[in-house]
Write a structure and sequence with these properties.
The protein is of the alpha/beta class. The chain contains eleven helices and 13 strands. The chain has one domain: Aldolase class I (TIM Barrel, Alpha-Beta Barrel), CATH 3.20.20.70. Helix 1 packs parallel to helix 3, helix 4 (116-129) packs parallel to helix 5 (149-166) and helix 8 crosses helix 10 (280-295). It is globular.
Length: 331
């Protein structure tokens, strides 16, 4: 039978199926179940600094209502802020420790912070708790009339450098597609110390209820067709950078996993398929991958990984064709 072992972030994974950061990975019991069903690694649900800050702000407003704050500046302000942060961080650290004791697969911590100081502090404590690696979930809204695009990009590099200076474990950066030159951004992330890039983050999107004439939320789950957003960029970057690539969003079945591996991904991140079909879908995907590799004469993933990346393709221009006219007239 084919060997599904792969390398990601310097870690040896039994297969390329990484469960993405989500509510699927927020308890030890869930993580144990994912391992039993064939996960190669898990990325824990993100520790959100912004969420912690909002909770602290709520507690402060409640304290003000109950006359617990006696001035604009009170020791209570510092106490509430510190207490909320310590509570959330302690809970997250216990999750890491519990998961590391309960499973053998790699446990990757995920942090989503909005200030430089918190990124560094959070990362160091998660390393000390036993995390095998860290995934930085960074996003700077690319819409401003006052900031240049390189100013936004510099935030990513600065945060990454500070985290890398504070920890010794591998660090991945999860990015969006919203850059003016994605190739250069990936290259710069590599130069600033990233060990891997996750392509791409799945964001919540707005929708409009025309009956109520209200802003609502679009479906939070990915669709199988979403794979094409990352497939192009994985194939363009593969074998051109010296860091690992994780394909995310739209990975719903074994065929999608194989496509991303052929394009050059080291691993794929899966979440929606598990939400919709349960953890057993991981075993189904692994079985599909085994059968496909056996049928095609592959013993190891490295034998075909990146085979259809742009640098290996007989039609390299095909990966850069965007417009429909060009597509229909030349391919």
């Amino acid at each position: 039978m084919a060997d599904l072992t792969t390398k990601y972030l310097g870690l040896t994974l039994r297969n390329p199926l990484v469960v993405g950061s989500s509510g699927l990975t927020d308890t030890v019991d869930k993580i144990v179940e994912l391992e039993k069903n064939g996960a190669g690694a898990v990325v824990l649900k993100s520790l959100f600094e912004e969420q912690i800050a909002l909770e602290a702000d709520y507690k402060l407003r409640e304290a003000e209502k109950n006359d617990l704050l006696y001035s604009d500046y009170s020791e209570s302000l510092d106490y509430i802020d510190s207490h909320i942060k310590d509570k959330e961080l302690t809970t997250y650290i216990e999750l890491i420790k519990g998961a590391k004791k309960a499973v053998d697969i790699p446990v990757i911590a995920s942090i989503n912070a909005i200030t430089h100081s918190e990124w560094t502090g959070f990362a160091k404590q998660l390393e000390m708790a036993g995390a095998d690696a860290i995934e930085l979930n960074i996003f700077v809204m690319p819409f401003s009339f006052d900031r240049e695009s390189d100013e936004n990009e510099s935030v990513y590099y600065s945060v990454l450098r500070k985290v890398k200076e504070s920890v010794n474990i591998p660090v991945a950066v999860k990015i969006s597609p919203y850059f003016s030159n994605l190739g250069k951004v990936i290259h710069n992330l590599e130069n600033n110390g990233a060990d891997a890039v996750v392509i791409f983050n799945k964001f919540s999107s707005p929708d409009v209820d025309i009956n109520k004439q209200e802003l609502t939320h679009a479906d939070i789950f990915s669709k199988p067709s979403d794979i094409y957003y990352s497939l192009r960029w994985i194939s363009l970057a593969a074998k051109r950078v010296g860091i690992d690539l994780a394909a995310s969003t739209g990975i719903h079945d074994g065929e999608a996993v194989i496509k991303q591996l052929l394009a050059g991904a080291n691993v794929t991140q899966i979440a929606t398929a598990i939400y919709k079909n349960g953890p057993s879908v991981l075993n189904e995907i692994n079985n599909f991958l085994h059968e496909w590799m056996d049928d095609n004469g592959y013993n190891y993933i490295d034998q075909f990984k990146g085979k259809l990346s742009q640098s290996e393709s007989v039609k390299p221009d095909a990966y850069e064709r965007i417009q429909f006219m060009k597509y229909f007239s030349e391919i």
